Amino acid sequence: MKILKGMYSLILFVAGVLHFVRERNFRKIVPDSLPFKKGIVLITGVMEVAFALLLWAKRGQSLVGKLLSLFMVLVFPANINMAVKNNTFYKGKKIHPLLLWMRLPLQIPLILGAIKLTKEKTK
Fold first, then answer.
1. Which top-rank group of organisms is this from (predicted)?
2. Cα within 13 Å of Cα(1), Cβ side
C-alpha cells in the first residue's frame, strides 16, 4: 500500500509543480466558462502539491481522502475539455483524440484510490 501511496503522491507532486512550470499550457484546458484561468491553474497546482504531502500525514487521513477525491471530481471538467478540444501540452504535436478520451476513465481509480489509500485503520 505504501508503494501505491508513493506513486499517487509522486503523480500529484509532479502535476502540481507542472502547473507552475507550464502554467500557460494548463490554462488552455480550463473550460472557457470559468474566469480567472491563471488563478485556477495556480491554485490547483498548490492543492496538488499539498495533497501529495498530506497523503503522508499521520492524522486526518479520512478527511484528506474525501477532499482529494472531491478535488479529482472537480478537475474532471478540465480533462473533458482537453479531450473535446483535442488540446495537448506539446506545441505543434497532437495526441490522437482517442488517447485523450481513453484517459478520462483513469479519473475513476484516482477518485477511488484517494479514499482507499487514506482509509484510517481501526484498532
1. Bacteria
2. 11
